[in-house]
Design brief:
The protein has 191 residues and is α+β, with helices and mostly antiparallel strands. It has one domain: Gcn5-related N-acetyltransferase (GNAT) (Aminopeptidase), CATH 3.40.630.30. It has five helices and ten strands, in the order ββααβββββαβαββα. It has helices at residues 22-33, 50-62, 114-129, 144-153, 181-185, and strands at 10-11, 15-18, 66-73, 79-86, 89-90, 96-98, 101-105, 134-140, 156-165, 170-180. Strand 9 and strand 10 form a beta hairpin. Helix 1 packs across helix 2 (50-62). One of its GO terms (molecular function) is acyltransferase activity, transferring groups other than amino-acyl groups.
């Protein structure tokens, strides 16, 4: 498996995924993540101040079990989102699986293809460099745009569970998805 000492830089035409730089990224990400709508299905709340944003970005950049990126607009050079994947786990049968991924994108970037670009970069890295067999993702069934995004990438639903979203104070269906290397290589995003 790959060495995870340094977060790889991943580039496309419109975005760059790079290591989170807390002092640089926190002020801009705070401005963008104050919108409560981007937190509706995340299980957390909008940050109260830039220091809270700094703390959260620092936490994600230091969790040893994940690879975390800031999604940077190549046009502005500023953060527009975050993306992290759990580091691959090798199972006794030899399969290598990433058990979870999490993304956040600024509302002004919704439905403009930025997350699709980020996912393509991350999946190419995971399947081709890390040589994983599957990537798993969890999403709330009522989060229709995220469900569509995963399914568009080629993910297949394999389990649903009813769970409490404490932030909302109600139960919702969590959908568990997965995508295999073979499915990814044949997906619409690879074309």
């Amino acid at each position: 498996m790959a060495n995870f000492d340094k977060t790889p830089i991943l580039n496309s035409e419109r975005i760059t995924l790079r290591e989170i730089n807390v002092p640089v990224d926190a002020p801009e990400w705070y401005k963008l993540s104050k919108d409560p709508e981007i937190h509706k299905w995340t299980g957390n709340n909008a940050p109260g101040n830039v220091w809270e944003t700094r703390k959260n970005l620092k936490k994600y950049s230091e969790i040893e079990q994940i690879i975390s990126w800031a999604i940077i607009s190549n046009e502005t050079g500023k953060i527009i989102g975050t993306y992290w994947v759990w580091k691959p786990i090798e199972y006794p049968d030899g399969s290598v699986i990433i058990p979870a991924e999490v993304e956040r994108i600024a509302k002004h970037c919704w439905r403009k293809g930025y997350m699709k670009e980020a996912r393509k970069l991350v999946y190419d890295y995971c399947f081709n460099t890390l040589n994983v067999n599957e990537i798993h993702a969890q999403v709330w069934k009522d989060n229709v745009n995220s469900v569509k995004s995963l399914e568009h990438a080629g993910h297949v639903l394999y389990k649903e569970e009813k769970k409490l979203i404490e932030q909302l104070g109600s139960y919702h269906i969590e959908c568990n998805y997965k995508i295999t290397r073979e499915t990814w290589l044949n997906s619409r995003l690879m074309k």
